[in-house]
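Quick question, first post here. What does this chain look like in 3D?
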Amino acid sequence: MARKPPTSKLGRIARLGGLTSRVGSSYLGQRISGVFQDPERRERAMRRLHIENAQKVVGTMGQLKGAAMKVGQQLAQVAEGLDLPDEVAGILSQLNDKAEPIPFDVIREDIEADLDAPVDQLFSRIEPEPLGTASLAQAHAAWLPDGTAVVVKVLHRHIEHSVASDLSALKTMFLTGRILQRDREEIETIFDEIRQRLEEELDYFNEAANLEFFRRAFRDIPGVRVPGTHPSHSGERVLTMDRLTGVPLEAFLESSDPRARQRAGLSLARMFFVSVYELGALHADPHAGNYLFEPDGTVGVLDFGCVKRFDEHWIADYARVAEHGIAGQRAPTMTLLRKMGGLNSDDPRAEQALWDLVDLMAFPFRQGRYTAGSQEDSVQDRIQQLLPRLLRYPEIRTPRNMIYLHRALGGTYAMLRRLETTADWGRMAAPYHAAAIARAEGRAP
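> Answer (accepted):
Ran it through. Tokens below.
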């Protein structure tokens, strides 16, 4: 019988504390043993240890769910950027946002407690079988008394009490075991940013406001849909929103024609540019599971719990970095990245490594019409080959604002590759860069 995940704060701390102790002790033991090993044997032993500890991390996080699972997913997403064996990435990829379904009797109780009314009065019908169960919430299809099709998302009980303790324990484990090959200050920043986004995901009033904000902002972008909310059927732990039509990305790829795929890809790209450079607010969880695709390529966007907001002056600097990088202007690019906290030294080797990354990221924007995901599109593979070199320089850092921005950029580009979207990316991006800079300089409203 599977162990039931602890819901109490002390129970979760004990489970994570035991994991932290085992992982930390294993690395300490290997460092001591490594003194007496030749380099080749020491490297083999460390690879085995990385794999063993990855398996422990996946096992424990998979049992705990909640914040622990969310942080585990973050680790899985950056696994290729860590100095770990290839096998570790495969182990970490086992982490996903799926959880065991919560019995409908519990869901019913939680809805009625939060909305202070019987479920049968609130909805003409609600499906007992969930549409999906994730680490933070469960969603059910339902219909309002007037026949409107909706999705009812219900936060898991006690989930908000585990965030601080789970993050603290996992951060200690990563620091003790040196699983993340970055300095302490950067790890502290990364975990604090994750904490803020997780706390926002647990605030359904905040998510309802996000949904309305993006629904209005995207209404003028053809081929994009964001569900409306139903405040009368939403509360602190229940969020009711319109049910969008469409299918997941994989099904869309199997059934759609090239024209529909092209339309969907261009819509995803426009959403990214508008979000970053016009709205200063970004849907920061852009994995394929948060999108639905209609037969004509219309894209429905779901789950606005994780939203990153930016200061217009910071975004203007980011736009300047993009413009200089695309133009191949190394000196002003490096000056700006130092200002933004991405490079904290004058080491020419570190600067060269960071410039090589910028140069690679800028490549599709210099090519005229360029197809993401074509045989000629090797940018993603080349970046992965560069990452181990970047990790040698702790003075190269990911500024706080870039953590979720680049996560969203990577997720969007991954979908564009699957859709094999073609565009003149440089021409598409240029007006957004120029407008963001003009607003920050007071030259545009």
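Residues 9-99+162-183 form one domain.
The chain is about 55% helix and 10% strand.
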